[in-house]
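[audit] Reproducing an earlier prediction to check determinism. Same input, same settings, fresh worker. If the tokens differ from the archived copy the diff job will pick it up downstream; this log only records the rerun itself.
[audit] input (128 residues):
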Amino acid sequence: MKIHLTSVFVDDQEKALRFYTDVLGFVKKAEVPLGEDRWLTVVSPEDPDGTELLLEPDGHPAVKPYKAALVDDGIPAASFAVDDVPAEFSRLRELGVRFTQDPMEMGPVTTAVLDDTCGNLIQIVHSQ
């Protein structure tokens, strides 16, 4: 068994697509119209047949309070692996990304947490 698909709830799919592709560097994998929304996924360009991230609309009444509670408590909605957290932090800061946690080393793990502009905190991580 392996993870095929996971999702983040976003407040605006088009804005999310731009952020996750133009800023974070993912590529669009699927886009299927579903009424007012879309089945919209992105993948890593390094693994185009790997795990897909669904940019899922946050229209369900339970989602906005859930997202707000996570953000208020500083809890990331997802974690993405990178090769070098400080380098990625610098690259993303240059692109205007707002971080809520600067790079932090915790033993063999380095993390940082960013705001995805769509209502989520996202952690970037590297394990040695």
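[audit] rerun output stored. Observation attached for the diff report: The chain has a mean pLDDT of 97.
[audit] end
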